[in-house]
Amino acid sequence: MPQAHTVIPAEVGMLRAYARRADRAASRGRRSFWQPGTGAKPLYRELILRANTAGLMNAVAHPAQYGFSDHGPIREDGSELSDPQLTICVELIGRRAQLEQFCRQQGDLLTDKIVVYKPLEHWCVGPAGITQADVPQDVAGFER
Q1: One of this protein's Pfam families, by short name (predicted)?
Q2: Which domains does the chain have, with CATH numbers?
Q3: Nearest to residue 17, comparing CAs of 95, 96, 118?
Q4: CA-CA distance, 61 to 23, in Å (whole number)?
């Protein structure tokens, strides 16, 4: 049976930064919906905003419901109240060089956070016969 599609792998990486839900980015001196009077956004939102501006492939926040971080106590969300000390994981996907540059540029937000890098493969799935030369240059991980 002929193959209907081709899979072209490319090396990318995943960076995970762990923070508390209560962590805030430094104030930019303007009022904000998130914290009136301070202008400080939740740290995870600021990281995702900056990742988008930096041109990373993907950025998402994964809130924890139960767990611990940095050797701390086990925490959990209650049925009516969320625990602001519970961990949130910000996951960023991009080329390794992009992620390293992002960490250098965003050190003010990542200092004292647990940051983990993991190599991954990004698969571009296309019609049979497609080659790496056919993949758009803006697809992360594909460099000609």
Answers
A1: DUF190
A2: 5-134 (3.30.70.120)
A3: 118
A4: 13
